[in-house]
Specification:
Helix content: 55-70%
Order of helices and strands: HHHHHEHEHEHEEHEEHHHHHHHHH
Strand content: 5-15%
Number of helices: 18
CATH topology of the largest domain: Beta Polymerase, domain 2
Largest sheet: 3 strands, mixed
CATH architecture of the largest domain: 2-Layer Sandwich
Number of strands: 7
Radius of gyration: 22 Å
Distance between the termini: 20 Å
Length: 354
Amino acid sequence: MDNLAITYKHIADILSFETIDTELEKTLSHSKFNWDAIVVEGSKHLVLPALYCRLKTKQLLHVLPNELNTYLEEITTINRNRNTSILTQIHLLSKLFNQHNINHLFLKGTALLVADYYDDIAERMIGDIDILVDLSQIESAYKLLKSNAYIPIKQTFGHTFFEHKHLPRLKTKQHICAVELHRKLFVSYKDKNLTNENLLACKQKKNNISIPSKEHLLNHNILNYQINDHGHLYNSISFKSIYDTISLLRKHTMPIKAYKSRVFKKYFRLAGLFFEDIEKVSGLKQNFTIYFYTFKLKHIKFYKFWNRLLKLIHFFTILLKRIPQFLTNKAYRNALFADRKRVFKYFISVLNNS
């Protein structure tokens, strides 16, 4: 895997709805095609089921080595069954909140799943069920879930002293997914179109489930990766996020050229580097961001060094912001001291991994 740019292009060509299938078949059928690299990066980006489903749709499963075909089919089947269970859980949660007049909507992957944006529900891997709740009702919603067999997952002491997007995660033995009730979409980033009031006022219903509007789904999908997952900081892409974006765009034409923010433009430029689905509608010229990203992908040692450096800078930036709290808040100092073993292990792990 000396050149990630090549691997990324192959993954994009499999996921894309614009690729010429006959040309893709020739590429994938080559005796020296590196399937190991596809599996490694596809796993990192959480798109292995999507890759299998897209190859199946393109009628190209025959190009897969037999063992890999079996492996991907098993993973996809497991994910399809999981998502079927998650959809059942979503419907039950929606019914519960509606019965108690809780103003809410489902976010991210669950919203996309509910709205049938995928040809096969197995395509999307989902972690938690994210639900945005009206601030005036969020504590009531939290208590409601606890009274219905959901149990809070133990949090670190930082949750007490610093602002979070959501309340502590809730899990239940009755269903497969943990639930996060969101106060808002971002901790500090501001987007006037993605305020709680705007999101809830413009929500739509799909299969009797409340989800964001098409525009809000697209904007949140992009900004969730760029801001919450630090894609903007690391100048990188997420195939899971991009596949969600093109799944949205193929069903709803939305003018990408209207996006003026640098955060959005960087996302579209990097995605358009690999996906014709994005390039055809973005109209954005290449710039230093593209050239630097391409350079990183072609020089893996530098790529790893640069990302480690950014990770350290990000970590110490957060650390510096917490110094005033340490100096002025006795309760915070006591909590830090009580949890010092875990904090020390975490500190060492960041230094070792960076």
